[in-house]
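A quick aside before the break. I want you to see a complete sequence-to-structure record at least once, exactly as it would be stored in a machine-readable document. Don't worry about memorizing anything.
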Amino acid sequence: MWKSYFDKLLDVHNGKQTEEFDIYTAELWIPKPSEIEVEISIKKFKNFKSPGLDNIPAELIKAGGTALIKKLHKLISAIWRQKELPKEWKTSITASVY
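That is the input. The structure line, written in tokens, reads:
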């Protein structure tokens, strides 16, 4: 019954073939993150939080100084150009607290 209902509901063309059109999108141009933005983001990290899968705490990243900021900016810029996040960045850890 549900299948029949949704077949009728979503059949906007009543079974007729429609013409194919070229679809153009207007993507926003967003500049790549600057080194200053990376530095500001790092400064906003909260202390005394659990580290992620890499086991690097926020305090250690903050203590990395200018050298680490430059390396992270280089990494983020490369990811920005490739337009794809690393697989590891898509993994999250959820811990239930009772």
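Two observations worth writing down. DSSP finds four helices and no strands in the chain. Residues 32-87 form one domain. We'll return to this after the break.
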